Amino acid sequence: MRQPPIWSRDFTLLWLANFLMGISFYFLLPTVPVFAVDLLGADTSQVGYLLGLYTLAAVIIRPLAGYVLDAKGRKAAYLGGLVLFALFIFSYQLATAILLLLVIRFLHGLSWGVLTTGGSTVAADLLPSERRGEGLGYYGMAMTLAQAFGPLLGLAVVAGGRYDRLFLMAGAIAVMAVLMATVVHYPTVTPGGKPFSFDAVLDRRVVPIAIIGLFTMMSYGGIVSFLTLFTAERGLNAGLFFLVYAVTMSLSRPFAGRLLDQQGPTPALTTGLLLLVIGFILLGLSQGTLLYVVAAGLLGVGNGNVLPTLQAMAINLVEPDRRGVASSTLFSGIDLGIGLGSTVLGWLGDAVGLSTMFIASGLVLLLPLAYYHFHLRGYYGAKRGRTA
User: Fold this and answer.
1) What does the pLDDT read at residue 281?
2) Per-residue pLDDT at 308
3) Which DSSP symbol is given to 183?
């Protein structure tokens, strides 16, 4: 029987909006800290706050964003978050002191939490239920491709110290994302009608899935925060790692989603977590380029299996009018994992060294693997039925 298509007009436009939004985000990720140090005289701790406040804002707003998406409709919440995201990029030019930049970063993080929760929810609405895992894999590919190319473009633009040009270009790309998203035909989902309450902003059924996401992203938090220091110690190229990581993650996502659609979450999730364990151990042991590149590839394929699988599990588990809350519950766990990982692994790295820290990051992932197989597999592994 012929399968329904994934690449409808509206899903393609949403994918392009997500890709352009990702490019503008990754324009700023490596360059805002340099802007803060060069022009505003920020110190190391203040640079750390720039990422921490952004993540904290996303964690705070996601539950409310999920509730609004389900109770008030997808279009207004998603487009509103995307428009604010673009406006706040332009506002970076107004930052004349580190305190003002921190305020802008916090507000920008709020818009990021709304639009990323909204975008994944709309994508799930647009995809045929029997190919949702594969489709979400393609949707996530937009962000990983942006992760591969956005930082390189942003650093190239700012090479001459032209931060005004950086913010104008990043803002213009975000405006293009807004234009793409404006012409999407958003599916109508009947509101669930839940009054505002704890259960209305967090789906208890998705919490165990979010816990796996939290552990997975704790380890990734170590990469985001400390890979550059590690590569400096070993004389390796950090840019090469992120390029290999992003490409392998992008390529593996659709295949992992297809495996999920056909066989349920267990094969993709198990394979992904085991590859992450091995990848982190090899990263910690790497002294030369070959093992380092192999580790980057394994980590990319591992996360390319785990993340879309968790997202599809969460979406398939709930009713259509709870998809916004399901997405916000999962992404809150992911955001918390990145924040906790950056902090806890920093302490561990100071105590035992970065090499041992990365090896420990891999071994820790045996915990969510065991948690799934011994406590969740019987229920969540059987939930292959898709909500419409």
Assistant:
1) 96
2) 86
3) T
Q: 22-52: string of b/e by CB count within 10 Å (b at 16+)?
A: bbbbbbbbbbbbbbbeeebebeeebbbbbbb
Average pLDDT, the chain: 85
Supply 43's token pair: 């110190």
Q: How far is CA 196 from CA 68, 113, 117, 189, 367, in A?
A: 10, 19, 18, 18, 34
Alpha-carbon torsion (360, 363, 365, 370), positive or negative: negative
As a whole number of angstroms, the distance between CA 242 and CA 150 comes to 11
CA distance 276 to 257: 17
| DSSP assignment letter at 31 | T
Distance CA 139, CA 279 (A): 24
Q: Which of 18-22, 190-194, 295-299 has the lowest mean pLDDT?
A: 190-194
Contacts of 358 (CB under 8 A, 6+ apart): 222, 230, 280, 281, 283, 284
215-246 pLDDT, tens per residue? 998 888 788 777 877 887 888 887 788 889 88
**What percent of the chain stands above pLDDT 90?**
35
